[in-house]
């Protein structure tokens, strides 16, 4: 799960600064230094960690053996072991080298991680691409309003009438006020509250199946 938060009090309390909501966009943020590329990289990193954990969970079977030290052995390598009693292949999970100057020996204790899968069928591993985001709906607000004119004797006045209202000229008994009324809309929640967006990011992981055969 990837979460984020920001403090909106700076522009909420400001009388001059307006929120940058734009029109149609995929991003809505008040963090000037956080780019879409940064967010994509964070999501891809989390996916890479999850993929490693999945692969690790399938490498719990271990085969241990010893052999003379070989400089080519390293934990980044996968090897095959072919002995009279065992035929297996896997990734080197642990490598311990022991040098005995008295006995004149140099042995490497190797722990081989065997990957296995109980299931039917195979899948190909997906590359870790940037997530695809749908554009946010337009969040722009009109910066102007149409105001009408309400004249006594021509238009019906009520307390909810907006625009310019005035009574008949020279009529001291006018029931119409002389005023200009403007209806101010409520501030929408997406301008005051963090925007929550659901994002599905699915990556297929191919589980390698190593060979493990015990011979009698």
Strand content: 15-25%
Mean pLDDT: 78
Provide the number of structural domains: 3
Task: Please provide the ordered H/E string of secondary-structure elements.
Answer: HHEEEEEEEE
Largest sheet: 5 strands, antiparallel
SS-derived structural category: alpha+beta
Q: What is the percent of helical residues?
A: 10-25%
> Distance N terminus to C terminus?
49 Å
Radius of gyration: 36 Å
Shape: rod-shaped
Number of DSSP strand runs: 8
Would you identify the regions where 5 or more consecutive residues have pLDDT less than 50?
A: none
Number of helices: 2
Quick structural overview:
The chain has 216 residues and is of the alpha+beta class. 12% of the residues lie in helices and 24% in strands.
Provide an overview of this structure:
The protein has 216 residues and is of the alpha+beta class. It has three domains: 1-58 and 120-140 and 194-199, no CATH class; 59-114; 142-184, no CATH class. It has two helices and eight strands; from the N terminus they run H-H-E-E-E-E-E-E-E-E.
Keywords:
216 residues, rod-shaped, 2 helices, 12% helix, five-stranded antiparallel sheet, three-stranded mixed sheet, 3 domains
Helices and strands, with pairings:
Layout: H1 9-12, H2 36-57, E1 61-68, E2 78-83, E3 86-100, E4 105-114, E5 149-151, E6 163-166, E7 179-181, E8 212-214
Parallel strand pairs: 5-6
Antiparallel strand pairs: 1-4, 2-3, 3-4, 3-8, 6-7
């Amino acid at each position: 799960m990837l979460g984020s938060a920001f403090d909106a009090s700076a522009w909420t309390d400001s009388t001059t600064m307006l929120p940058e909501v734009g029109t149609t966009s995929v991003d809505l943020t008040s963090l000037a230094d956080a780019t879409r590329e940064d967010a994509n990289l964070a999501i891809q990193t989390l996916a890479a960690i999850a993929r490693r954990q999945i692969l690790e969970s399938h490498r719990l079977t271990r085969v241990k053996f010893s052999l003379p030290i070989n400089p080519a052995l390293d934990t980044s390598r996968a090897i095959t072991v072919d002995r009279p009693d065992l035929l297996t292949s896997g990734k080197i999970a642990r490598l311990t080298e022991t040098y005995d100057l008295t006995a004149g020996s140099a042995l490497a204790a190797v722990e081989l991680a065997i990957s296995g899968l109980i299931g039917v069928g195979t899948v190909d591993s997906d590359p870790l691409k940037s997530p695809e985001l749908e554009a946010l709906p337009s969040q722009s607000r009109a910066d102007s309003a149409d105001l009408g004119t309400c004249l006594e004797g021509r238009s019906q006045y009520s307390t909810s009438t907006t625009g310019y209202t005035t009574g008949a000229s020279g009529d001291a008994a006018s029931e119409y006020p002389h005023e200009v009324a403007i209806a101010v809309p409520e501030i929408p929640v997406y301008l005051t509250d963090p925007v929550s967006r659901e994002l599905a990011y699915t990556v297929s992981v191919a589980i390698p199946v190593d060979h493990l055969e015990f011979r009698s």
